[in-house]
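Morning run. Coffee first, then this:
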Amino acid sequence: MLKRLLKSEAGLRAAGILAGWIVRFVGATTRWEWVADPESLALLRSEERIIGAFWHNRLMLILVAWPRPKPVAMVMSEHGDSRILGIAVGDYITRPIWGSSRRNPMAAMKGMLRALDDGLSVAITPDGPRGPRMRCRPGLVEAARQSGVPILPAAWSVSRRKVLRSWDRFVVAWPFGRGVVVLGPPIRVPADADAAALEASRLAIEAALNAVAAEADRLTGHPPIEPAPEGSRGR
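And here it is:
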């Protein structure tokens, strides 16, 4: 019955509204601390365009850390989970970008470039929507190369949480805990990068995202969530 409900527009909207209430309640009752590279923090709080990158398992509270006046387009798949998320955080998102790194990568990349051309920043989970977990796909790198916009690797964690047994090890935060947002140094992809340089940039982004996630976990008293093994195909 629940599965049938979530396949309907009314069911998806109800789930999204409920999820939005939960996200805001948990975010508001968490005591937040920032551990941020100074340049990244300045870029995040400025009017400059950025590409905010974070792993899929950190989706629940990532936009709580986004400055509300800063316009953002977010890459989302048309999968039910992403549609619920889109409703839940709809008032944070200026424009949804429908597409994914697996099912429709060209639509996602073109949507990112259009948003950046229009002066919006972009938020993306480069291992979404179905993995492999914590492994960066190449679309983000190409969008950064073509646009010249820096990538900001970001992660959060909280002291009170549950890690689900999903493909991404999704982190569910409980209220009334201590939280931390970690921002790594910005990563820029050269406009003239060849195939080898693009792969080096992809690996650098992946390493940076894993580093900020591990640091966020460490600072909140948890062991780091490990990436999927090299060469995994995802869910």
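The CA atoms of residues 35 and 47 lie 21 Å apart. Good start to the day.
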